Automatic annotation (TrEMBL), chain A:
Molecular-function GO terms, alphabetical: ATP binding; ATP hydrolysis activity
Species annotation: Cohnella terricola
All copies of domain ABC transporter, residue ranges: 25-257
Record protein name field: ATP-binding cassette domain-containing protein
PANTHER family, per the entry: ABC TRANSPORTER ATP-BINDING PROTEIN, ABC-TRANSPORT PROTEIN, ATP-BINDING COMPONENT
Domain of life: Bacteria
Key words of the record: ATP-binding, Nucleotide-binding, Transport
From TrEMBL, chain B:
Pfam family, one: ABC2_membrane_6
InterPro entries documented for this protein: ABC-2_transporter-like
Assigned keywords, A-Z: Membrane, Transmembrane, Transmembrane helix
Domain of life per record: Bacteria
Residues spanning the membrane: 25-47, 62-81, 117-136, 142-174, 195-215, 235-255
Key word Transmembrane helix present: yes
This protein's record includes keyword Membrane: yes
Protein name in the entry: ABC transporter permease
Length: 343, 267
């Protein structure tokens, strides 16, 4: 049985319609009009123990909403979520014992309480035995460097410090699953890298299942074996990173240094090659690697120019995702895309 | 048990963080004290003129006022700021954190804060209670002490239920604070005088619909042994603990219904 089962999951938010003008406002006091926003629409997937899943998508796609339903914060409008065989929002306490959650935007710790006291409260709340608490604290302290701010109240922590404290608190009780909603938001490069390494270690050594959302594709590349892409509440892609790269990362980029300036060629263009940025004698060419081979292009160029140097770049994951999002937007529902823009 | 243990962990931390605010913390204890002094003074001024209201003399009216204040104070220590915190959390979307912890959110809500602000009220109320008992020549034997505590607890539960129910309105309404204040301070003020002075409709409402009469009027009848102005049924004073339990259970249901309606905020 899969660890997490999600079937036809759907979440609608009711938003009160805002009225402008006196009479519409008066009317809305008597008769309230709501508009329904479907944040998650019939999403189904399963996740097995030990997986590290990246859940990505443009702003407002429904990532956080899905996570909140898996965690038990929100009650689904319809559909099924089962985690460890339990329905999270019906068994909040039992479910909470086995999971850890970090929301990049909000702390799960007690706001007015110093970090170390907050962690101690976590210990009591989760009934963590002394020896395990000590062991984990020591381990986490090494990676997350909590000492420098452990006496500071959570409200006064910097973003990065808060995230480190939250991560520590979320993992102290050795949860089976951790949900990380934008765990690397606003962190500096060093801390980001450290946190990625930490997550990787936890996954490898304890077999902890990790579900994370992010807008930083390096997180995905360095951590996730599987990616799910959502847009407008719909699951658009679910598979491993390699396949995603093959499916959407087919645009390759080549940079050629030539002795003489490179002239655009109708012939190359007909072969499916697009000209990018050109500066002095360095030219960028992009093409679909599934329809034309780089050796064919370089051969064509070498017959006409003397080539000093050239490099072939695979499309970066950032670019792939950007292409994918743009692709989704063109295919997706333009009406709701416009509605978003108006709000 | 687990709940008490956790409570014992939370409270010292709460006080440590509050005492850091220094002078303001100690001023908190004075709280509404001044307010209450004024209220007692008004009762004194009024009663010196009229002697009795509907057959209730000055000390009896003061006793009623005191019971209202005491039951509210005790309930408020555990629920008042806790519920206003909840309203704030729901508004900001930070209520999420109560739903991901392995502890009943209702319990968590209670233990993460403490209404030290109301301790001053309780001290004044206990003082005035002793004073009124003395002036009225009341004394408690074992049996009546038990009965007194039982009706007092009933009253506390009624007050707590109203705080929880009006506070839970935040799960349905955006600006619920004003509703909470209206229920807690507006209607409560009606109870400073014997319910028997009001018309039948209001008496009925305060007994059966929003049964605030059980925080002081019915308990006072019992303590003062007044059978002459019984309303509706003479056994109603004895129902106080049951009314308290029932209302509190309803409050808990309302709270739970609110939890499942919680939408959070985007992000
Ligand atoms: N509490 C709420 N009330 C009303 N609408 C909401 C609420 N929470 C989310 N939404 C709406 O649901 C949609 C999905 O939001 P969600 O927070 O899940 O997006 P997301 O994928 O996490 O985006 P981001 O990358 O910006 O964090 C958005 O259109 C948002 O406006
Ligand atoms: Mg989000």
């Amino acid at each position: 049985m899969a660890l997490i089962e999600v079937e036809y999951l759907r979440k609608e938010f009711k938003r009160q319609k805002r009225k402008d003008g006196f009479w519409p406002l008066m009317k809305s006091l008597v008769h309230r009009e709501y508009e329904i926003k479907t944040a998650v629409e019939n999403i189904s997937f399963t996740i097995d123990r030990g997986e590290v899943v990246g859940y990505i998508g443009p702003n407002g796609a429904g990532k956080s909403t899905t996570i909140k339903m898996m965690v038990g914060i929100l009650v689904p409008t319809s559909g099924i979520v089962r985690v460890n065989g339990l329905v999270p929002y019906e068994n909040r306490i039992e479910n909470a014992r086995r999971i850890g959650a970090v929301f990049g935007q909000k702390s799960q710790l007690w706001w007015d309480t110093p970090v170390i006291e907050s962690l101690r409260l976590t210990k009591y709340m989760y009934d963590i035995p002394n020896d395990r608490y000590e062991r984990n604290m020591k381990l986490f302290n090494d990676v997350l460097d909590l000492d420098e701010f452990k006496k500071v109240a959570v409200r006064s922590l910097s973003l990065g410090q808060r995230m480190r404290a939250d991560l520590c608190a979320a993992l102290l009780h050795d949860p089976d699953i951790v949900y990380l909603d934008e765990p690397t938001i606003g962190l500096d490069v060093v801390v980001k890298e450290r946190i990625r390494q930490f997550i990787r270690e936890i996954n490898r050594e304890r077999g902890t299942t990790v579900i994370l959302t992010t807008h930083d594709m390096a997180d995905i590349e360095k951590l996730c074996s599987r990616v799910m892409v959502v847009d407008h509440g719909k699951l658009m892609y679910d598979g491993n990173l390699e396949t995603l790269k093959n499916d959407f990362g087919n645009m390759e980029k080549m940079e050629v240094d030539t002795d003489e300036p490179f002239a655009m060629s109708e012939e190359l263009r007909r072969m499916g090659v697009a000209f990018g940025l050109t500066e002095e004698n360095r030219t960028q060419l992009t093409y679909d690697k599934n329809s034309i081979n780089s050796t064919v292009i370089i051969k064509w160029i070498m017959e006409r120019y003397s080539v000093r140097d050239f490099i072939v770049k695979e499309t970066e994951i950032e670019q792939i995702i950007r292409d994918l999002y743009i692709h989704l937007q063109q295919q997706g529902t333009p009406v709701s895309a416009r509605e978003e823009a108006l709000i | 048990m687990r709940f008490l243990k956790l409570y014992a962990r939370f409270i010292p931390i709460y006080f440590k963080s509050k005492t850091e605010h220094g002078f303001g913390f100690y001023m908190d204890f004075v709280g509404f004290a001044l307010n209450h002094v004024v209220s007692y003074f008004v009762i004194w001024a009024l009663m010196s003129r009229f002697q009795t209201i509907n057959g209730w003399n000055m000390y009896e009216v003061m006793l009623m006022y005191t019971l209202n204040m005491l039951t509210f104070g005790i309930a408020a220590v555990f629920f008042f700021f806790q519920m206003t915190d909840v309203e704030e959390d729901v508004h900001m979307g930070t209520f999420d954190s109560l739903l991901v912890k392995p502890i009943n959110p209702f319990v968590h809500m209670i233990i993460r804060a403490f209404g030290h602000f109301f301790l001053g009220d309780i001290v004044i109320a206990v003082g005035m209670l002793v004073f009124c008992f003395h002036k009225l020549g009341l004394s408690l034997d074992f049996g009546s002490a038990i009965a007194f505590i039982a009706v007092l607890l009933g009253g506390v539960l009624v007050q707590a239920a109203f705080i929880v129910i009006s506070g839970s309105a935040c799960f349905w309404l955006v600006r619920s604070r004003s509703l909470m204040n209206m229920v807690l301070f507006g209607i409560r003020d009606l109870m400073d005088y014997p319910v028997s002075i009001y018309g039948t409709v209001l008496r009925g409402v305060l007994t059966f619909v929003i049964p605030y009469a059980f925080v002081n009027f019915y308990p006072a009848q019992l303590i003062l042994n007044r059978n002459d102005d019984a309303l509706f049924a003479s056994w109603l004073p004895y129902a106080t603990p049951a009314v308290g339990l029932l209302l509190f259970a309803i409050g808990y249901r309302v709270w739970n219904a609110g939890l499942n309606r919680y939408q959070g905020t985007g992000s």
